[in-house]
Amino acid sequence: MSAPAADPAVLIDPARIRRFGALYVLEHQIRVMRNYRSSIVATAIGTPFIYLFAFGIGIGTLVSANAGRVDGVDYLTFVAPALICMSVVGIAAMEFTYPIMLGFKWNPTFVGMNAAPLSARQIVDGVVLFVALRMAIPAVAYYVVMALFGAAPSAWGAGVVVTSVLAGLAIGTPIMAYAASITEDKGQFAVIGRVIVLPLTLFSGTMFPLEQLPWFLQWIGWLSPVWHGTELGRQLTYGATEPIWLTVIHVGYLVVLAIVGWRLTVRVATRRLDR
Amino acid sequence: MPSTPVIVAADLVKKYGDFAAVDGLSFEVAPGESFGLLGPNGAGKSTTMRMVGAVSTRTSGSLAILGLDPNRSGPEIRSRLGVVPQADNLDNELRVRDNLIVYGRYFGLPLRHLRRRADELLEFAQLADRAGSKVDDLSGGMKRRLTIARALINDPRILLLDEPTTGLDPQARHILWDRLFRLKEQGTTLVLTTHYMDEAEQLCDRLIVVDKGRIMAEGSPAALIREHSTREVLEVRFGSERNAGAAADLEGIGRLEVLPDRVLVYADSGEAALEEVTRRGLQPMTSLVRRSSLEDVFLRLTGRSLIE
């Protein structure tokens, strides 16, 4: 415990902490993630192979034999942007629930960060940045495998990574705000997964065009970030066409949801940490 | 000490709805001082610590930490504090040394500095050989020492410790006290809460006795004992059923406190008091003469024991 060589009083700069605080939280989460890197890499590469194989070779063959092309392309190309979006949304539903409860309660690292100079806002921002990264890694792997399967013919295909992550944030940050507000785990997260995320995923023009649903169920797709994200992805991967106003709605809806959820989480977390 | 106080609290209040957890505390802490808040569970100690730690907004009153108002300069204040919370919040998913480094990054400290500092602090916390261990594999005492090491990563001006040894076995407590005593010798300002009188006596230069959010007394442990108690205490037990009855016959020997399991007789000489008890024909099942402690001060001030 001798005197340190460099005086931390000089090294500590509140202005720098204000500017980069969220990145320090991101750095922390990345260090934790390194514990799971092999499982993350394995699922990131394995999942697209399994799904694309099942849908392309399995269901795709069946669809092509009976219905021919869907939306002007073969079934695998049609379904691939939906699969990547669903996969990313699944990660969002995971990472924006239990780890939030963990940080506030089970292993309250957020409380520790807040006792250091970081604000609730910086903590939330850092976690959102981390989950965006956590979603982007498998999304990139998914896209690469899609390209290998020939399911992303357009030159703009890589953009599907961005639209899928955006959909993940749109569905994820409102869930995060809720997760930050609950103090007791009574299985709410499982309910969110099955009652909200799953229907929003299945009835969102993912496996089949939204118009195939009876008209009284189509609103689910309109509400679902998965539909908006998937439709954007389809434009990018195989050049699906739609009116420009619809594209604007897709992007606007996702951005607004993501920001509202994000802001709301900051408010909830600020109140929760200031007891 | 003539130097400017590092903490100044005046009429500090924290309310949750109608309930005032902290109800008008005023105190000052000088640099280098070791200051304690002694009181039972629910006295408002932890709430006070969170306000001093600039994470909990006060309801009213004024508070200055290092000359800054936590309402306005929370992050600046927190960058100069070390905090050891009551419940450990080490990251269980990181190794021991990484916990220090990650925490140091929150202060914007460069990795090169942190690697060296982490090793120094692990040495200090007697955890150098556990640098690569998982946090979950550490004992309770080791986790506390790691939390203290973590709190020192930014070389804080003030170290806040909320019940640092609660839940530890006696040996682990003594190791921890020794480490804290070293920090005190080096001139670190310590502010700690405890409901252990022996801890307060060992570590605090000065303390406030807190109950129900209010200050009951203030002073050095020795002065508080001198002021609110006698030099010695005689403890006599007559059996649970008979303690209250026997107390009537003890009148006049000294001030009495009748507890469910024993009667305390406050006297300058415990031996003389015991002689008087036997001279009156009373035969306690057991008797014990001891020095007065802060426990007695608390009992005197509140009519209740510290640990209930």
What topology does this entry show?
The complex is a heterodimer of chains A (275) and B (308).
Chain A: H1 8-11, H2 14-33, H3 37-67, H4 75-95, H5 98-106, H6 109-115, H7 120-148, H8 159-181, H9 188-202, H10 218-223, H11 225-238, H12 244-273
Helix pairs in contact in A: 2-7, 3-4, 3-7, 4-7, 4-8, 4-9, 4-11, 7-8, 7-12, 8-11, 8-12, 11-12
Chain B: E1 7-16, E2 19-29, E3 34-38, H1 45-52, E4 60-65, H2 70-78, E5 81-84, H3 96-105, H4 111-124, H5 140-151, E6 158-162, H6 170-185, E7 189-194, H7 197-203, E8 206-211, E9 214-219, H8 221-228, E10 232-237, H9 243-250, E11 255-258, E12 263-267, H10 270-279, E13 286-291, H11 294-302
Parallel strand pairs in B: 3-7, 3-8, 5-6, 6-7
Antiparallel strand pairs in B: 1-2, 1-4, 8-9, 10-12, 10-13, 11-12
Helix pairs in contact in B: 3-4, 5-6, 8-11
List keywords for this structure.
heterodimer; A: 275 residues; mainly alpha; 12 helices; 0% strand; elongated; disordered N terminus; B: 308 residues; alpha/beta; Rossmann fold; Alpha-Beta Plaits; 2 domains; 6-stranded mixed beta sheet
What does this structure look like?
The complex is a heterodimer of chains A (275) and B (308). In chain A, helix 4 packs antiparallel against helix 7 (120-148). Mean pLDDT of chain A is 93; it is low at 1-5. Chain A is built from 12 helices and no strands. Chain A has helices at residues 8-11, 14-33, 37-67, 75-95, 98-106, 109-115, 120-148, 159-181, 188-202, 218-223, 225-238, 244-273. With 275 residues, chain A is mainly alpha-helical. Chain A is elongated, with a radius of gyration of 21 Å. Chain B is globular and about 75 Å long. Chain B is of the alpha/beta class. The two termini of chain B are 36 Å apart. Chain B has helices at 45-52, 70-78, 96-105, 111-124, 140-151, 170-185, 197-203, 221-228, 243-250, 270-279, 294-302, and strands spanning 7-16, 19-29, 34-38, 60-65, 81-84, 158-162, 189-194, 206-211, 214-219, 232-237, 255-258, 263-267, 286-291. Chain B has 11 helices and 13 strands. Chain B has 2 domains: 7-220, 3-Layer(aba) Sandwich (Rossmann fold), CATH 3.40.50.300; 230-291, Alpha-Beta Plaits. The interface between A and B is large, with 38 and 41 residues.
